[in-house]
Amino acid sequence: MLSNSLIELDRAHLIHPVTSYRGHEATGVKVLRSAEGATVTDASGHQLVDGFAGLWCVNAGYGHESIVAAASRQMRELPYATGYFSLGSEPAIRLAAELAQRAPGDLDHVYFTLGGSDAVDSSVRFIRYYWHARGEPQRDQFISIEQGYHGSSTVGAGLTALSTFHAGFGVPLSWQHKIPSHYVYRNPAGHDGNAIIAASLAALDAKIAEIGGPQRVAAFYAEPIQGSGGVLVPPKGWMKAMRARCQAYGILFVADEVITGFGRTGPLFACSEDEIVPDIMTVAKGLTSGYVPMGAVFLSDHVYGTIADAAGSSAVGQGYTYSAHPVSAAVALEVLRLYEIGLLANGVKAGARLMAGLQSLKDHPLVGDVRGRGMLAAIELVTDKKQKTPLPIAAEPARRIFDRAWKNGLIIRAFPTGVLGYAPPLCCSDSDIEAIIERTAKTLDETLADADVRAALQH
Ligand code: PLP
């Protein structure tokens, strides 16, 4: 069978991202064959609702002929153009202008990358250059947040605060520091939003003092909602308060919108809803809806202007062969059009339904917390709701939950912390959302029936 030979070829040759290599060799790959709307079909014909939009990226859903047409038109006309030597292509220029027009405040200058990790990496390079240009090269320390994720380049993995990305890789680097997350469900400051904001501000103040004062700190990185850390939604006003405190210190504020951008939480950018204008913003994923790779860094007028003035007639040494790739740009322009003719609006409607559906599972014996914003949500499983005892991971690896959901026709993200993540395509219909909720309920019941989980519940 074709699929068996593919499994063998995969086992022998394909290295998968963020995967246990030996575990994967034992279980083998699940091959996806086709997709339409919010539904994907595997090589055996099994159909699943993609409750995670690939990897929080296929915001527009699968099978958009107009996106395919935009890519093929561009491939035929001009498949590649470098941005070096002051060259460019029409779609890249138009895309930069369209994005600048929609981005918060004066984030008017756009540098295109291939994805999120290199967007974060590039942002760090711009920030370092900026502080050199300002005559403050000693501002070389960076602060980010526990449970945060900022990619898996060496620099991004160091800003990340998830142990899988650190162990054995020699990161974080000495100039990368963390403060605790706002993690509302498990915050030592309690559930009150103002208390959590006050605790985060105090933690930021303390960290800055520990580093040697604001004159040592280059930038602070925050995701509007922490995605890979388990969909951690900060209390209302958290981003605004942190942004204001950074501004008071003269520290650059970077919003990493790689997941939250492009309608995932409702508007085109979550920062607008948070009522902030960061100094720098990074995006990827929904920019092209995952059809082709592309990310971007937005620089505000003052950051761009400072860098440009300092470099003068010299080149700013930051660039990739595939920066501002015309095919990716053509795709992104079409995806942007789709967002604005209905996808964003549908995402808001479907997101409200998703949250209501997940809330209806709150009384399930395993559900400790339900959280989210728009089409970005999670439920956190516990074996004791009062004590918030995490699911016993040794007994119930995330993989088993993932596999149960898969059999039930649903793709979700099962984090090793017992958190189930949801980020469905924004095109989801009412019946797609109903299927996500029903199949989640079935998966939870099956998990509850698991002998190891029952044993943990009895303790
Ligand atoms: N930043 C954030 C907030 C992310 O969630 C991710 C990926 O999930 C990245 C950066 C890295 O993006 P990529 O996987 O496209 O390199």
TrEMBL record:
Residue intervals passing through the bilayer: none
Cofactor: pyridoxal 5'-phosphate
UniProt keyword terms in alphabetical order: Aminotransferase, Pyridoxal phosphate, Transferase
GO-annotated molecular function: transaminase activity
Domain of life from the UniProt record: Bacteria
Family per record: Belongs to the class-III pyridoxal-phosphate-dependent aminotransferase family.
Matching PANTHER family: AMINOTRANSFERASE, AMINOTRANSFERASE CLASS-III
Protein's UniProt name: Aspartate aminotransferase family protein
Species of origin: Bradyrhizobium iriomotense
